[in-house]
Structure of Leucine-responsive regulatory protein:
Amino acid sequence: MTSKLDKTDRKILAELQRDASQSLDEIAKTVGSSKTPVWNRIRKMRETGVIRGQTVIVEPEALGLEACFFVLIRTAEHEADWQLRFLETLRARPEVLEAHRLAGDIDYILKVRVENARAYDAFYQALIAEVKIHNVTALLSMEEIKATTELPL
């Protein structure tokens, strides 16, 4: 989906990505506009799907989710029914924050957030009980260097 966004739309999006809790007055002042046009632009971007939603970013460690694993999956299964079962399994697991199908030697990569290595093992055991997987490699993130939800505008 490509939407025609002008300079002001992009400024509004940058402000919303930085802090969506800002008032319309604050956003309008920052982008050099008034409240009503800013609201109309935001409404239009929601209607056209440019803005998909609004959320809160929670600190994982505040919830005891101190371990972040990147899980590399290779599979010998590529049939539609296996893929459907695999995707349903991933979507049902709240530990899976992201899942991507890849080109190359690795078929899928998952970003999994759990309390510790024992919790990861429980996740892993549940995953392989649900779907047949050829090879799984788990990489523990030692330090998060950069994480953002802000897209480049």
Observations:
- The first strand starts at residue 67 and ends at 74.
- The CA atoms of residues 86 and 131 lie 6 Å apart.
- The chain has two domains: 8-47, 60-140.
